[in-house]
Specification:
- It is a single chain.
- By secondary structure, the protein is mainly α.
- It has 3 helices and 2 strands, in the order H-H-H-E-E.
- Helix 1 (7-20) crosses helix 3 (36-45).
- The termini are far apart.
Length: 58
């Protein structure tokens, strides 16, 4: 799966995947072979951070 580069689209896709398919951000990154730090950095620039307890970015 190719993840979007636009931060708002990435935010939407990642949160949907976390809600529907993955128990954690680490599991998502492992399964998609995605760079978690790059995703976190992109979303952080848009003002989002990962909440482990809620398993979502906000």
């Amino acid at each position: 799966m190719t993840l979007p580069h636009d931060p708002m689209m990435l935010y939407s896709v990642i949160n949907t995947l976390l809600r529907d398919r993955y128990p954690s951000f680490a599991a998502l990154c492992d399964d998609l072979q995605a760079d978690g730090e790059q995703i976190r950095a992109c979303l952080a620039q848009a003002g989002f951070e990962y909440n482990e307890q809620q398993n979502r970015f906000w």
